[in-house]
Design brief:
There is one protein chain. The chain is mainly beta. It is built from 7 helices and 104 strands. This is Tenascin R (restrictin, janusin).
Length: 1262
């Protein structure tokens, strides 16, 4: 087709075989396709184009070419010109088209991108399919082409400002009705309280009566007014009682400053009460109501008044006090009672209440009295106690203020005062203690008549007696006692007494003769008249007394005469005053008579004999005293009719001083004294003992005085063996060794004292036989031992060998004298034997040679391991015949000794414990008895693998449970875990050896499961352990958010499915944060590593992108659908290293697609600063949907997508890690516009979740 007209041409191709001729003519005027409305012509052109393609294809199939050898005979009417858009090639047998043209004859214009496969190319222009448009059919076509009210971008309509909807057919309301109404067909239907085209005007009832301001549909009333329309007077507030008396009530309240008056009304609550009222100026907020009746209940109302308009009242009820009692006095006070009196009341009331409370609050007394009573006697009080007395008046439920006074009862004093056991200087005072609790007892005493000062003692209150000391003898005293408590003293009780005369003191004998005794004494302290001296012999055969006047000095003397010589007298002296007489002072005195003529008549080495002259006068006996030169003194008595005695057992060669005196009672005569020496004691005998074959012990008596040295010698009978030794003089024993056996010896001892050598003392002996020597034991077996020895020197006839076991049996054997070894047989094993050997010659036996030996032990047998467990086994064996003290068990594994155990000898088995599982042990056992050890018996055992421990199910909810256990001790390869429900379904898992827990997921609700666990290694398996648990039911069968998943008991953060509006067909996978701020958050955005590109178009942000476990955006449509389920709150968590902040908003939602997902948030709280409120009410923008109000495209300029305004304070979908101004992940109020926050999570949850979860916690069982 050309501009100047149609071209017609004919092409014929002859196929020699088939003779098929293809002929086609095309003649379509160009003008016929020019009208866009002529769809029929357009469709025809399309069909022709398709037909031409088919004919060209068929032609290519029917002929291999036009120029080759197989070409048919024929001719071309003309060489094709390739429509003027190419050149014909005979090599190719076709046209080579110019750029922009195609087809066999280059007559077809080429369309851009071949119409993207979404349309057909007609004359170089794409005829797009129904849902696509654009030059190359690559652009999705918008519904209804946006109804001519918007632009189609990426298949979505960007509507004009006044329209919305997918096809821009829906009229948009002004300002989206300010979120205070619904947009219906472009018209706002406002909520109550709001009016205007965009519902932005607030409407209040009665225009708040012109007494307030309308805010958000509610009246904010002026000061002093209240009510929905501000038409009422605001009532008073905080009405309180400031004070109450019997006749007044003080009130206080709060009120507005614009009030003109306050009206106070008060009415007695009793029947017939008359209401009274008082008015106060509006600037008054306190008042006192006076003239009230005491003890009466009043109902009080306070009204606020503005120009005669009265508010509702604020009310209160209060009782007036009863009048205080008056004139409380104490009429009388005793130790146990108090009489109290007071003034009467002259109005009606119920009565009185009086109480007596002790200071320690222990045992108070309370009485209620009629109103006519004005005095009261309280009895039963404690003496000396302080009481608080309270008196109140009573009327109905009212009580007066108490009148209070204190009173202290009198103290009762001590009673029954007596004085006893009076001596010259001491008197004992007793009394009965008082009943009252007192602080001290006061005791006073002094001389009667006021002579001298009185003495006062303050004693402990518990005392009831006291001893008066250092009194004046022979004097009259007065004594009194009383009680004191807290400074108050009771009455006293007193009595009088007289001390006795004191006896004379220090009575002594000044001198004496054979017929006189001169006496002296210290005078009595009392003023006495004189002294009576009474004396007599001790035998009582002479008695006399004399009166001696008192000397004015300190002492008085007298001499007793005409006394018997050598006689002892008893003397007593008493002081005399009038008819009173003191106790006597006594002593004994003896007249003189000496012992004389003391002589020595005989003495030996240890005795001395004495003789002395007879003493004239009566005596009891003689006392003989003798003292050695070493200072040792000995006394003895001799009868009075004997004048001689012999001193015995004296030390030889010692000087003694001897005295003799006559005694009568305690009196002793002058003594006679003499000195004398004893003689010397020699050695008299030798004593031989402990005679053996080669030694003897020699003992002798010690000489007196001691020897200087001894010479001890011995000689055999034949003179061949002699010896001499010098010994110290103090020795009395010596051992003579080195003697020959069976030999006669003579022993002699010579004593040397100074220059004196004694005659020898001798003794004879014959030494005994010598014993066998060096007895040894060898070749010890369980039943035999061999004994060997060395033959003795002395001749003998035979040996006698004896052996005795611990069992007590004794056996003997006679052995020839020429034998030096012998084997004992038929012995018991592990038995101690005592073996004795002696040589015998006639009746003579040598000293016994002994030794001890244990026969060897036999060993235990048949050691067996039974009841083998992973950590234990029972060992059992047969014991040896011999007794066993202990068994020793040794356990070895891997050629290393693991343990050594001691088992009691009476046991035949032992329980092994604490073994290692899956271990081969070698067990060795031997027995011991004393020092003996048996042979060892050995066995081997293999412990099996131990099972896991403490298999436990926890964190059980409706669909999962956490199974945990403690691993076995043995090394394992893996675990086999199976779990089975009651309906028979069963699953089996193979777990790694390192695992100690697994969470079972996908469980059925309210189902009991049995879990079994077994460890394995190779072909070995442990015992099976098991546990059971029952899954719970879900609180929410189709959770619509993460909070409901959490309330279902799913506490782990991760990916969950939620169901919009609990519709099972609207499931959405989300990531749930179950830990932050009590959990339950739906995370709808996360930035953490920059691996996900967030600079995306509208469609991506609409449906969401990324990985829920990593970085992602949940999708605007999902966010909108979730947030419309109810009221949600928003939380944004941000981190920079260790620094964490958050921002939360108590309300969060976004609009739908028609509202371009407009952002709505509530009040801010948090630590990051409020950077999101700037974006309040803004639609969402992407780089291909610029919905901001800035001149520039914010999303394109700042590498993200957001609810941009002009442009942002927050840009949490910005470019990760970008620090250029405003292009990174920004939160202005935390890090500014030049810092990209490395971690961000945006999340939402139901606003009321916190209160719901706290209620569930409070209701959960403990």
């Amino acid at each position: 087709m050309e501009p100047n007209g149609p071209r017609e041409y004919t092409e014929q191709t002859l196929d020699a075989d088939s003779q098929v001729t293809f002929t086609h003519r095309i003649n379509i005027p160009k003008a016929a396709c020019g009208c866009p409305a002529a769809t029929t012509i357009q469709q025809l052109a399309t069909r022709v184009e398709m037909l031409e393609r088919e004919v060209s294809l068929l032609r290519a199939q029917c002929g291999s070419g036009c120029c080759g050898e197989s070409s048919a005979m024929g001719r071309l009417d003309f060489i094709p010109g390739c429509s003027g858009h190419g050149s014909f090639s005979f090599d190719l047998c076709g046209c080579i088209c110019e750029e922009g043209w195609t087809g066999k004859n280059c007559s077809e214009p080429r369309c851009p991108d071949n119409c993207s496969g979404q349309g057909v190319c007609v004359e170089g222009e794409c005829v797009c399919d129904r849902d696509f448009g654009g030059d190359n059919c690559s652009e999705p076509r918008c519904p209804s082409d946006c109804s001519g009210r918007g632009l189609c971008i990426d298949g979505e309509c960007v509507c004009e400002e006044s329209f919305t909807g997918e096809d821009c057919m829906v009229g948009r309301c002004l300002n989206d009705c300010s979120d205070q109404g619904l947009c219906i067909n472009g018209t706002c239907q406002c909520r109550p309280g709001y009016v205007g085209e965009d519902c932005s005007l607030v409407y209040c009832a009665n225009n708040c009566s012109k007494k307030g301001v309308c805010k958000e549909g509610f009246c904010v009333c002026q000061d002093g007014f209240a009510g929905d329309d501000c038409n009422s007077v605001a009532p008073v507030m905080n009405l309180i009682i400031r004070g109450v008396t019997d006749h007044t009530i003080d009130l206080e309240w709060e009120g507005s400053a614009v009030l003109t008056d306050f009206l106070v009304t008060y009415t007695p609550s009793s029947p017939g009460g008359v209401q009274l009222e008082i008015r106060f100026p509006g600037n008054t907020t306190t008042c006192t109501i006076t003239g009230l009746e005491a003890g009466m209940e009043y109902n009080i109302n306070v009204f606020a008044v503005i120009n005669n308009s009265i508010s509702v009242p604020d009310s209160i009820t209060v009782w007036t006090y009863l009048s205080n009692p008056d004139g409380l006095v104490f009429k009388s006070i005793t130790e146990t009672s108090v009489e109290v009196q007071w003034q009467p009341f002259y109005y009606s009331f119920d009565g009185w209440e009086i109480s007596f409370i002790p200071k320690d609050n222990d045992g108070g007394m309370t009485a209620q009295l009629p109103s006519t009573i004005t005095s009261f006697v309280q009895t039963g009080l404690r003496p000396g106690e302080q009481y608080t007395v309270n008196l109140v008046a009573l009327r109905d439920q009212g009580r007066s203020q108490p009148v209070t006074a204190t009173v202290t009862t009198l103290i009762d004093g001590p009673t029954q005062l007596i004085v006893r056991d009076v001596s010259d200087t001491v008197a004992f005072v007793e009394w009965a203690p008082p009943k009252a609790k007192i602080d001290q007892i006061v005791l006073r005493y002094g001389l009667v008549g006021g002579e001298g000062p009185r003495t006062t003692f303050r004693l402990q209150p518990t005392l009831s007696q006291y001893s008066l000391q250092v009194l004046r003898p022979g004097s009259r005293y007065e004594v009194s006692v009383s009680g004191v408590r807290k400074g108050n003293e009771s009455g006293s009780i007193s009595t009088e007494f007289t001390t006795e005369i004191d006896a004379p003191k220090n009575l002594r004998l000044v001198s004496k003769t054979s017929t006189t005794l001169e006496l002296e004494w210290d005078n009595s302290e009392a003023e006495v008249d004189g002294y009576q001296v009474v004396y007599s012999t001790l035998a009582g055969d002479q008695y006399d007394k004399v009166i001696v006047p008192r000397n004015e000095g300190a002492t008085t003397k007298t001499t007793l005469t005409d006394l018997l010589p050598g006689t002892e007298y008893g003397i007593g002296i008493s002081a005399m005053k009038g008819s009173n007489q003191s106790t006597p002072s006594t002593m004994n005195g003896r007249t003189g008579e000496p012992v004389d003529l003391l002589i020595i008549t005989f003495k030996t080495y240890n005795t001395i004999t004495l003789v002395w002259g007879v003493v004239q006068g009566p005596i009891d006996h003689y006392k003989v005293t003798y003292t050695s030169s070493s200072g040792t003194t000995t006394e003895m008595t001799v009868p009075k009719d004997v004048t001689t005695t012999t001193l015995t057992e004296l030390e030889p060669g010692t000087e003694y001083t001897i005295t003799v005196a006559a005694r009568r009672g305690r009196q002793q005569s002058n003594a006679a004294t003499i000195d004398a020496f004893t003689g010397i004691r020699p050695v008299t005998h030798l004593y031989l003992s402990e005679v053996t074959s080669d030694s003897v012990s020699v003992v002798w008596n010690a000489p007196a005085p001691p020897a200087d040295l001894f010479i001890l010698s011995y000689s055999s009978a034949d003179g061949t063996d002699t010896s001499k030794v010098t010994l110290d003089g103090f020795k009395t024993r010596s051992l003579v060794p080195g003697l020959l056996p069976s030999t006669h010896y003579t022993i002699s001892l010579i004593t040397i004292q100074g220059d004196v050598t004694s005659e020898p003392i001798t003794a004879s002996l014959t030494t005994g036989m010598d014993s066998p020597k060096e007895m040894t034991v060898s070749e010890v077996t369980e039943d035999a031992v061999t004994i060997a020895w060395i033959k003795p020197l002395a001749p003998f006839e035979y040996y006698k060998l004896s052996y005795q076991s611990a069992r007590g049996r004794v056996d003997s054997v006679v052995i020839d004298s020429d034998v030096t070894n012998y084997t004992l047989s038929s012995l018991f094993p592990a038995t101690e034997y005592e073996i004795s050997l002696i040589a015998v010659s006639g009746s003579q036996e040598s000293k016994v040679v002994k030794t001890s030996v244990f026969t060897a032990m036999d060993m235990p047998s048949e050691l067996t391991a039974l009841n083998i467990t992973p950590q234990g086994a029972l060992l059992r064996w047969n014991p040896p015949l011999s007794n066993v003290d202990i068994y020793v068990l040794t356990l070895t594994h891997h050629q290393v000794t693991a343990d050594t155990l001691i088992v009691e000898g009476n046991k035949q088995e032992h329980q092994l414990s604490n073994l290692k599982p899956s271990t081969t042990y070698s067990v060795a056992l031997y027995a011991t008895k004393g020092p003996l050890t048996s042979g060892t018996v050995i066995t081997n055992l293999q412990t099996p693998m131990d099972a896991p421990l403490n298999l436990t199910a926890s964190e059980v909810n409706h669909r999962s449970a956490l199974i945990s256990w403690q691993p076995p001790i043995a090394e394992i390869d893996n675990y086999m875990l199976t779990y089975k429900s009651t309906d028979g379904s069963r699953k089996e898992l193979i777990l790694d050896a390192e695992d100690t827990w697994i969470r079972l997921e996908g469980l059925a609700e309210i189902t009991e499961y049995t879990v079994k666990l077994q460890a394995g290694r190779g072909l070995d398996t442990s015992a099976v352990v098991s546990t059971t648990f029952t899954t719970g039911s879900r609180l929410f069968a189709t959770p619509q958010n993460c909070a409901q998943h959490l309330l279902n008991g799913e506490t782990l953060s991760g990916v969950y499915t939620i169901y919009i509006n609990r519709d099972p067909s609207q499931g959405v996978q989300v990531y749930c944060d179950m830990t932050t701020d009590e959990g339950g958050w739906i995370v709808f955005q996360r930035r953490q590593n920059g691996l996900t590109d967030f600079s995306r178009k509208w469609n991506d942000y609409l449906v969401g992108f990324g990985n829920l476990e990593d970085e992602f955006w949940l999708g605007l449509d999902n966010i909108h659908r979730i947030a419309t389920q109810g009221r949600y709150e928003l939380r944004i968590d941000m981190k920079d290293g260790q620094e964490s902040v958050y921002a939360s908003y108590d309300k969060f939602s976004i609009g739908d697609a028609r509202k371009l997902y407009t952002l709505r948030i509530g009040e801010y709280n948090g630590t990051a600063g409020d950077s999101l409120s700037y974006h309040q009410g803004r639609p969402f923008s992407t780089k291909d949907r610029d919905n901001d109000i800035a001149v520039t495209n914010c999303a394109l300029s700042y590498k993200g997508a957001w609810w941009y305004k002009n442009c942002h304070r927050a840009n949490l979908n910005g470019k990760y890690g970008e620090s250029k101004h405003s292009q990174g992940i920004n939160w202005y109020h935390w890090k500014g516009h030049e810092f990209s926050v490395p971690f961000v999570e945006m999340k939402m949850r139901p606003f009321n979740f916190r209160s719901i979860s706290s209620k569930r916690r409070r209701s959960a069982p403990v």
